[in-house]
Amino acid sequence: MSSNPSIVESINPSSEPLDLRARLGEVDHSMRNPAMLFLVSAVFWLLAGTLLAMVASIKATNQDFLGDSEWMTFGRIHAAHLNSMIYGWGNNIIFAVAPWIMARLCKARIRHTNILIMAGIFWNVALTIGIIGIFKGDMIGVEYLEMPQYVTPIMLITYALVGVWVVIAFRFRQSEHVYVSQWYILAAFFWLPWLYTVAQIMLVYEPATGVVQALANWWYQHNLMGLWLTPIALGTAYYLIPKVLGRPIHSYYLSVVGFWSLAMFFAFSGIHSLIGGPVPAWVVSLGVVSSVMLIIPIVVTAINLHLTVVGAHQEGWASPTMRFVVFGAINFTAVGVIGAMFSMRHVNETTHFTHFTVGHAHHALYAFFSMIMFGAVYYMMPRLLEKEWRNPFLIKAHWYMSGMGAILMVAALMIGGFLQGLQMNALDADGVPVYQFIEIVDNTKYFLWARSMAGLMIMVGHFAFAMNVFWMIFSPAEPDKVTEPTLLASTPDQA
Amino acid sequence: MKSLPLLFLGIFFTLAMSWTIVVLTPHLQMSDLTPASSDLADDQDNPIGGAVFYVDGKPQLGKNIEGDDTFPVPLVGEAQRGKLVYESMGCMYCHTQQVRRKGFGADFERGWGERQSVPRDYILQDRVMLGSMRTGPDLTNVGTRYTEEWHYQHLYNAQITSRVEDKISTMPPFPFLFEIREVSENFGPSPDAVDMGAYNPGPGYEVVPTQRAKDLVAYLMNLKQDYELPEMKFSE
Question: Smallest CA–CA separation between A386 and chain B, in Å?
Fold first, then answer.
């Protein structure tokens, strides 16, 4: 398992010749405005989504909270939270980070960035209208696709305007070698519009017959995670870890295996969410098998990333980027293993229809995806703005609050959900349910309070993050001052 | 990766293959499902008890018995509009509409259905909301369990119907689907007015469901899979 030396050269900062460094500076400069537009939008949506999540979480235990308002009813807040987070925070931050990484790896200056800026404005306007549509009552009863049909075509077109620049950067790349991050980003930008278009047609514009809708919905939902957010997050991790640590990825071969097995198995696995449902049994079995097979890419990628980091833990701990990225990468493994376990029919019998699933979703979307994206922001912003982070304490606050909040939230929901499922299915000797439904609702409440606590911690973290981002943006540039990268702990060199 | 065409082909085929197998194939498999009578008949019009009968050892699909009711039944009028209310309020985030088979979970024992839900139950729905979460009970057969009055009370404030001692329901209240108004001096209380128990407004006032509440309750009253299908009989 030897690594490919040419790839090493292309990513290792210490082997970069001087003119390359200058060229990367040019790439950064060309991406500065569009990337910052998407990044700032993403931060706003993150805060909005967090507030909505808090409201929804409080409502889950205190149903009278804001109960008189139709706009604030639980179902709509929940849908608004979900869509702000996925399409507001998730997609905006991807549009900020992924084209930038692609441009850097291709060493291609992005021209005509005003088209990207236009796309950014349209995307966010459409999204805002869509979220208002949900509040107003135009919500579509399809999970993850709740935004009303009058905004989705605009979103698809603006998406295409972003995607096209990724393809253009790739097409005119100045580097000979195509690095693993480039495969992931290229593939993701190809998969999402396809997924989104097919799902919109089959579920909203020309709804398919009966439960085919449920199949299409879960195919979309899981692939949105597996073929859009996951490849982008992994591509980002594959880019940032070697960059920060100054050492190559452990094995080229393992990254190839990880990439293809992820694409192969993730695309089928969503149907495990319909275990026991009114769909053909063979298609559910296929979902279960591929969910278990997902262990392969997860273990392979985990080994590859872990062996890259191993021995450099002190440098990693000092870097804000590495803290977030490694936390995300560890949770990628955890979420995959847990996902494979509860895809088994007998475990699923208990966890299905409970808060366990909600915990799993937050595990994947927050503890894995969002944390890696935070890491990317900590790496990207100083390079785009040529300034340093203003306050290491705010970074630490963000790290501890988000990290601990994520762990508490996932643990509360998974344990609470598992107990909920056990109580739901418990029968006495005569085949009569042991617990009344209302008792289960009552018993689950304690875990939902813990979830609200975790949400509060995460909210504090997000406000610290936002404060630091805006502080940095509005602080004056000091081009002559030599700045040091922001470190959170002393590195071995300093010690 | 050395071979870019291979990369592109791979990216294309992974998603194309999954869509074909996971979505398109079941679509084709289920595309000929139509409403069916509870029992099917063979070519001599004799009931056959299942979905197929055999001629010379070869399976043949039975046909609907003429004159029998066929299921599922389409939603009409208020119930059809009520489904849009159900959808726009996000009811599906806490309620499922699918019953698992007896022995897998306790759906049967909790009285949520007499049998497992099957694909044919959903063929007439233009929006299938199976749901993925049971914060509240399954609603597949909620139309068979309660009266209309119960539903109005439950929607106005779930504590009226579902509170047990200190254990309160966490279902959100929907007071905005109702109107609180003064009792008419000339005509007396409205025939639509619902008694809200502890949540009644002061004397001289009454709670009257709006049209949306009526639609939603009509929809809920229509939620039932209380019929047998050729491929799925009631569980013992």
Answer: 33
